[in-house]
Amino acid sequence: MKRLFFLRHGKSDWNSADPTDDHGRTVAPRGRKAAQTMGRFLTAVDAVPDKVLTSSAVRARTTTELAAEAGGWSCPIEVCDDLYEPTPRAVLTRIHQQPDELESLLIVGHEPCWSAATGGLVGDADIRFPTAAVACIDANVERWRDVGWGCGMLLWHVPPKLIGALLPRES
Protein backbone atom coordinates (compact mmCIF):
# COMPACT_ATOMS: atom_id res chain seq x y z
CA MET A 1 0.00 0.00 0.00
CA LYS A 2 1.27 3.47 -0.91
CA ARG A 3 -0.15 6.63 0.63
CA LEU A 4 -0.32 9.96 -1.21
CA PHE A 5 -1.03 13.35 0.29
CA PHE A 6 -1.84 16.36 -1.87
CA LEU A 7 -1.51 19.78 -0.20
CA ARG A 8 -2.46 22.99 -1.96
CA HIS A 9 -0.29 26.00 -1.14
CA GLY A 10 -1.49 28.50 1.44
CA LYS A 11 -3.43 31.63 0.47
CA SER A 12 -1.17 33.80 -1.65
CA ASP A 13 -0.50 37.47 -1.18
CA TRP A 14 -1.67 39.24 -4.30
CA ASN A 15 -0.12 42.51 -3.11
CA SER A 16 3.40 41.13 -2.89
CA ALA A 17 6.09 41.61 -5.49
CA ASP A 18 5.34 42.02 -9.17
CA PRO A 19 1.70 41.12 -9.95
CA THR A 20 2.81 39.63 -13.27
CA ASP A 21 5.22 37.25 -11.50
CA ASP A 22 2.92 34.38 -10.53
CA HIS A 23 5.87 32.09 -9.71
CA GLY A 24 7.27 34.61 -7.22
CA ARG A 25 4.03 35.36 -5.38
CA THR A 26 4.40 34.98 -1.60
CA VAL A 27 2.05 33.55 1.02
CA ALA A 28 -0.36 35.89 2.81
CA PRO A 29 -0.45 35.92 6.62
CA ARG A 30 -3.66 33.82 6.53
CA GLY A 31 -1.90 31.30 4.27
CA ARG A 32 1.12 31.12 6.57
CA LYS A 33 -1.12 30.32 9.54
CA ALA A 34 -3.02 27.70 7.51
CA ALA A 35 0.23 26.03 6.37
CA GLN A 36 1.36 25.74 9.98
CA THR A 37 -2.04 24.35 10.98
CA MET A 38 -1.82 21.69 8.29
CA GLY A 39 1.70 20.70 9.34
CA ARG A 40 0.56 20.26 12.94
CA PHE A 41 -2.55 18.41 11.75
CA LEU A 42 -0.58 15.87 9.70
CA THR A 43 1.66 15.21 12.69
CA ALA A 44 -1.31 14.95 15.07
CA VAL A 45 -3.00 12.29 12.90
CA ASP A 46 0.26 10.35 12.46
CA ALA A 47 0.46 11.24 8.78
CA VAL A 48 3.96 12.70 8.49
CA PRO A 49 5.16 11.87 4.97
CA ASP A 50 8.32 9.94 4.17
CA LYS A 51 9.15 12.55 1.51
CA VAL A 52 7.78 15.85 0.19
CA LEU A 53 7.77 17.06 -3.41
CA THR A 54 6.93 20.73 -3.81
CA SER A 55 6.38 23.07 -6.70
CA SER A 56 9.19 25.58 -7.12
CA ALA A 57 6.74 28.50 -6.82
CA VAL A 58 7.51 30.65 -3.78
CA ARG A 59 4.05 30.15 -2.24
CA ALA A 60 4.33 26.33 -2.50
CA ARG A 61 7.88 26.22 -1.12
CA THR A 62 6.92 28.52 1.76
CA THR A 63 3.84 26.42 2.54
CA THR A 64 6.04 23.31 2.60
CA GLU A 65 8.63 24.91 4.88
CA LEU A 66 6.03 26.25 7.31
CA ALA A 67 4.12 22.95 7.47
CA ALA A 68 7.31 20.92 7.99
CA GLU A 69 8.58 23.24 10.72
CA ALA A 70 5.23 23.41 12.55
CA GLY A 71 4.81 19.64 12.30
CA GLY A 72 8.40 18.87 13.28
CA TRP A 73 9.01 16.80 10.16
CA SER A 74 12.50 15.62 9.26
CA CYS A 75 11.69 14.03 5.90
CA PRO A 76 13.49 15.04 2.71
CA ILE A 77 11.96 17.87 0.68
CA GLU A 78 12.53 18.07 -3.07
CA VAL A 79 11.75 21.27 -5.00
CA CYS A 80 10.44 20.44 -8.49
CA ASP A 81 10.17 22.97 -11.31
CA ASP A 82 7.83 20.63 -13.19
CA LEU A 83 5.24 20.80 -10.38
CA TYR A 84 4.62 24.49 -11.15
CA GLU A 85 1.67 24.58 -13.58
CA PRO A 86 1.78 20.80 -14.16
CA THR A 87 -0.69 18.54 -15.86
CA PRO A 88 -2.15 15.60 -13.92
CA ARG A 89 -0.05 13.34 -16.18
CA ALA A 90 3.13 15.18 -15.12
CA VAL A 91 2.20 14.69 -11.45
CA LEU A 92 1.65 10.98 -12.10
CA THR A 93 5.05 10.78 -13.80
CA ARG A 94 6.67 12.33 -10.70
CA ILE A 95 4.88 9.79 -8.49
CA HIS A 96 6.15 6.93 -10.69
CA GLN A 97 9.75 8.12 -10.19
CA GLN A 98 9.73 7.68 -6.41
CA PRO A 99 11.74 4.91 -4.74
CA ASP A 100 9.60 2.01 -3.58
CA GLU A 101 11.09 2.13 -0.08
CA LEU A 102 8.91 5.18 0.56
CA GLU A 103 5.51 4.35 1.99
CA SER A 104 4.08 7.86 1.81
CA LEU A 105 4.55 10.95 -0.33
CA LEU A 106 3.27 14.50 0.12
CA ILE A 107 3.03 16.68 -2.99
CA VAL A 108 2.57 20.44 -2.57
CA GLY A 109 1.23 22.45 -5.47
CA HIS A 110 -1.58 24.22 -7.22
CA GLU A 111 -5.07 24.30 -8.61
CA PRO A 112 -6.58 23.32 -10.95
CA CYS A 113 -4.21 20.37 -11.19
CA TRP A 114 -4.68 19.19 -7.60
CA SER A 115 -8.43 18.74 -8.10
CA ALA A 116 -7.93 16.95 -11.42
CA ALA A 117 -5.10 14.70 -10.20
CA THR A 118 -6.76 13.63 -6.96
CA GLY A 119 -10.11 13.16 -8.69
CA GLY A 120 -8.47 11.01 -11.35
CA LEU A 121 -6.54 8.90 -8.87
CA VAL A 122 -9.73 7.96 -7.04
CA GLY A 123 -11.79 7.34 -10.17
CA ASP A 124 -13.04 10.51 -11.82
CA ALA A 125 -14.27 12.19 -8.63
CA ASP A 126 -15.10 15.88 -8.43
CA ILE A 127 -12.76 17.22 -5.74
CA ARG A 128 -12.11 20.90 -5.04
CA PHE A 129 -9.09 22.23 -3.17
CA PRO A 130 -9.37 25.44 -1.18
CA THR A 131 -6.00 26.92 -0.28
CA ALA A 132 -3.99 24.84 2.21
CA ALA A 133 -6.41 21.89 2.01
CA VAL A 134 -4.89 18.41 2.17
CA ALA A 135 -6.16 15.13 0.76
CA CYS A 136 -5.05 11.63 1.70
CA ILE A 137 -5.28 8.82 -0.87
CA ASP A 138 -4.36 5.17 -0.41
CA ALA A 139 -3.26 3.29 -3.53
CA ASN A 140 -3.43 -0.48 -3.27
CA VAL A 141 -0.09 -1.01 -5.04
CA GLU A 142 3.37 -2.20 -4.00
CA ARG A 143 5.37 0.06 -6.34
CA TRP A 144 5.00 3.75 -7.07
CA ARG A 145 5.19 3.09 -10.80
CA ASP A 146 1.92 1.12 -10.50
CA VAL A 147 -0.06 4.12 -9.22
CA GLY A 148 -2.59 4.99 -11.90
CA TRP A 149 -5.92 6.63 -12.56
CA GLY A 150 -8.69 5.06 -10.54
CA CYS A 151 -6.37 2.98 -8.31
CA GLY A 152 -6.76 5.05 -5.18
CA MET A 153 -9.23 5.47 -2.38
CA LEU A 154 -9.81 8.91 -0.88
CA LEU A 155 -9.45 8.52 2.89
CA TRP A 156 -9.98 12.16 3.74
CA HIS A 157 -9.90 15.70 2.34
CA VAL A 158 -9.52 18.45 4.92
CA PRO A 159 -9.47 22.25 4.59
CA PRO A 160 -7.61 24.21 7.30
CA LYS A 161 -10.78 25.96 8.49
CA LEU A 162 -12.21 22.61 9.55
CA ILE A 163 -9.32 21.75 11.84
CA GLY A 164 -7.94 25.13 12.89
CA ALA A 165 -10.18 25.30 15.95
CA LEU A 166 -9.40 21.72 17.00
CA LEU A 167 -5.62 21.93 17.27
CA PRO A 168 -3.82 23.73 20.08
CA ARG A 169 -2.38 27.05 18.99
CA GLU A 170 1.37 27.53 19.00
CA SER A 171 2.46 30.27 21.37
Poorly predicted residue ranges? none
Shape descriptor? globular
CATH class: Alpha Beta
Q: Output the helix-strand order.
A: EHEHEHEHEEH
Tally of distinct domains:
1
Instruction: Let me know the largest β-sheet.
Output: 6 strands, mixed
What's the CATH architecture? 3-Layer(aba) Sandwich
* Helical run tally: 5
Radius of gyration: 15 Å
Strand line-up in the sheet with most strands: 3-2-4-1-5-6
What number is the mean pLDDT? 92
Overview of this structure, please?
The protein has 171 residues and is α/β, with parallel strands linked by helices. The chain has a single domain, classed as Phosphoglycerate mutase-like (Rossmann fold), CATH 3.40.50. It has five helices and six strands. The protein starts with a strand and ends in a 7-residue tail after the last helix.
Question: Which key terms come to mind for this protein?
Answer:
six-stranded mixed beta sheet, Rossmann fold, alpha/beta, 171 residues, 6 strands
Concise structural overview:
The protein has 171 residues and is an alpha/beta fold. It has five helices and six strands; from the N terminus they run βαβαβαβαββα.
Please write out the topology.
Layout: E1 2-8, H1 29-44, E2 51-55, H2 58-71, E3 77-80, H3 88-96, E4 104-109, H4 113-121, E5 134-139, E6 152-158, H5 160-164
Parallel strand pairs: 1-4, 2-3, 2-4
Antiparallel strand pairs: 1-5, 5-6
Helix pairs in contact: 1-2, 3-4
